[in-house]
Design goal:
Elements (H helix, E strand, L loop, with lengths): L3 E2 L3 E7 L11 E8 L10 E5 L9 E7 L11 E7 L5 E9 L10
Parallel strand pairs: 1-7
Antiparallel strand pairs: 2-5, 3-4, 3-6, 6-7
Length: 107
């Protein structure tokens, strides 16, 4: 599956796969997009995985904003999902960033 970002502001849905109960405890994650050197290129959002309901009730939509940088449309960027307590990267998901229009225009 190709994951492409085409705007400076984008939304992603996150699914908490298991409900909190018994052996499954709540967790907190920091999520951000970074370049290949792990430098953040977006703001950092916090996801609190503490839901106990049905699967459809355990989806969280987060809004991200890219930093004012030049993005290489051919480069890989990575979404990092980091356990806030341990600092361990739980997910490292590749994305491409192709912004159609730059923020500045030459007139």
């Amino acid at each position: 599956m190709t994951r492409k970002i085409g705007n400076n502001i984008f939304f992603l849905d996150f699914m908490q796969t298991e409900a909190v109960s018994g052996k499954t405890v709540p967790a907190e994650y920091e999520i951000y997009l970074c370049d290949r050197m792990s430098n953040p290129v977006s703001d950092v959002q916090t996801l609190i995985a503490d839901k106990t309901g049905e699967p459809q009730d355990r989806v969280t939509k987060l809004r991200f904003t890219l930093k004012s940088l030049e993005f290489d449309g051919n480069a890989a960027y990575y979404l990092h999902v980091v356990d806030k307590e341990t600092g361990v990267i739980m997910e490292h998901i590749e994305f491409s960033v192709k912004i159609a229009f730059a923020n500045d225009f030459d007139f």
